[in-house]
Amino acid sequence: MLRLFTYGASNRLSKTALALIFCTSAVAAEPVEVVALGDSLTAGYGLPQGQGLVPKLQAWLDEQGVDAKVVNAGVSGDTTRGGLSRVEWSLSDQSDAMIVALGGNDLLRGIDPTSSRENLAAILDIAAARELPVLLVGLEAPSNYGAGFKEAFDSMYAELSQEYDTLFMPDFFEGLRVNGGTNLQDVREFMQPDGIHPNAEGVQRIVSVLGPRVEELVERTQ
């Protein structure tokens, strides 16, 4: 009887161990979910399906063997306030990390950078409460807004990144400035006719710089 009991218990334990190993492997196989919270630049405004930022970024990550899924939470026309109003429902229990790329529409509307900063800080507070690593993507204001506005707008991203210990990409359009251009007029060949949104080649160039930052973001989740 003792031998039968021992064998049965051992057998049950073996099955339990195998089940645990299987479950652990299944969990480990789940890709890291990265939510890209942004505006039309993230949403892929004016581009054919599959040519926008998120699908191109996903393709880049796949090519690099990075096991991650990028969720497109870009809404055209969104300001930092709009992003804040929907960040809670843009995230799910499966979300592991977040890209925050907002501020372009604040800039176009001339919204006080103090307000934009408060909204971004509130978004980062939510990410911190969920213990989500963040990649904060900034923008550079043109000089025609005035020196004070430009300084406040440009600096808020770096300062918030330091305060919240996020990863940081100073300029969304960094990948376009291949020839040292200092404004979007210098890179018009990579822009759509509106002069605001990148074309397909422009997106590819942006992703070439953004991709490694997102790969680092995925590593932070581990």
Describe the structure.
It is a single chain. The chain has 222 residues and is an alpha/beta fold. Helix 7 links the parallel strand 4 and strand 5. The radius of gyration is 22 Å and the shape is globular.
Largest sheet data: 5 strands, parallel
Helix-strand category: alpha/beta
What global shape is seen? globular
**Overall pLDDT level:** 89
Number of helices: 8
How many strand units? 5
Low-confidence stretches: 1-7, 21-27
Helical percentage = 40-55%
Characteristics of this structure?
8 helices, globular, five-stranded parallel beta sheet, 5 strands, 222 residues, single chain, disordered N terminus, alpha/beta
Set down the secondary structure blueprint.
Layout: H1 2-28, E1 32-38, H2 40-43, H3 53-63, E2 68-74, H4 80-90, E3 95-101, H5 104-109, H6 113-129, E4 134-137, H7 147-164, E5 167-169, H8 200-220
Helix pairs in contact: 3-8, 4-6, 6-7
Briefly summarize what is shown.
By secondary structure, this protein is of the alpha/beta class. It has helices at about 1-30, 40-45, 55-65, 80-90, 105-110, 115-130, 145-165, 200-220; strands at about 30-40, 70-75, 95-100, 135, 165-170.
